[in-house]
Structures are given as structure tokens and as C-alpha cells.
Specification:
- The structure is a single chain.
- With about 150 residues, the chain is an all-alpha fold.
- Helix content is about 70%, strand content about 0%.
- The longest helix has about 40 residues.
Length: about 150
């Protein structure tokens, strides 16, 4: 009989149930109280911990997206644009930076972010001018287009 290691030899000698219990207890080692020693309590706690960790990964994504949006909104307000206008005008200008990168630019590269805000502002003004057309409305039509003087 060829034995490659003592651990494998020992693994082959004991029952599978023992190793299943040890696997659960390995994950429960850092728990407080009897949950790290008693299998019956450890199984429940380990399963619950795995479920919570799965949910927490999704919640982390939501939380980080909300954080990035808050940072972008604060930085864009400094340059005179609200968040929805900033994002939509960047998209219309074919700037394909995601919110994570925009938030990092707002914090670590304020000059770059300022140039992006200026680009969005310019695109917004072009949109206003295109909506106004020649500035004359046809007879009998009342519109709510506000004439801005820039």
C-alpha cells in the first residue's frame, strides 16, 4: 500500500460523517459560545452566516452605487449642474465613464471632473438652443420654453 501523506491516510481511515462535522466546525471556529463546539448549533449558525454573506454581497453593490451617485451629485452641484442633467448630457456627449470612475475623478482629479462638467454644460446649452429653434413660435401656440440669456 502506497501512502502519499499522513493526512490522506488518516482521511481514509475515519468515517465520512466525521469529516462532514469537522468541515462545519471549521467554519464555526470564530463563533462565540457553544456554537463553535456543538455540531447541532454550529450547523444552524454556519448556514445562517453563509446566507447573510450572500445577501451582503448584493447590498454592498447597492450601497457603493448610492455612494458614487452622492459623490457625483455633490461635485456636479459645485459646477452648477444637477446630477440627472450631468449624467444625461454626458451620455449625449458620448462620454462612457461609469459612476465609479466619475466619483473617483470628482475626488482625486477635480480639474478633469470640471472639464467633464463644462462639456455637459455646453451640451445642455446646445440642447436648449436646438429646442428653441429660431426662437419664433408659430401662430396660436403657447409653449413653456424659457428663454435664458447666457
Amino acid at each position: 500500500m502506497v501512502v502519499l501523506s499522513a493526512a490522506r491516510w488518516l482521511r481514509s481511515r475515519l468515517s465520512d460523517r466525521f469529516w462532514r462535522v469537522q468541515e462545519v466546525l471549521k467554519y464555526a471556529r470564530h463563533f462565540r459560545g457553544r456554537k463553535n463546539r456543538c455540531y447541532k448549533l454550529a450547523v444552524r449558525s454556519v448556514r445562517r452566516a453563509f446566507v447573510k454573506s450572500t445577501k451582503a454581497r448584493r447590498e454592498k453593490k447597492r450601497f457603493l452605487r448610492a455612494l458614487w451617485i452622492t459623490r457625483i451629485e455633490a461635485a456636479s452641484l459645485e459646477h452648477g449642474l444637477k446630477y440627472p442633467a450631468f449624467i444625461s448630457n454626458l451620455a449625449k456627449s458620448q462620454v462612457e465613464l461609469n459612476r465609479k470612475v466619475l466619483a473617483d475623478l470628482a475626488i482625486y482629479e477635480p480639474k478633469t471632473f470640471k472639464s467633464l462638467a463644462a462639456l455637459a454644460q455646453r451640451r445642455r446649452q446646445e440642447g436648449f438652443l436646438a429646442a428653441l429653434g429660431d426662437g419664433k413660435e408659430p401662430e396660436g401656440i403657447f409653449s413653456r420654453i424659457v428663454h435664458h440669456s447666457y
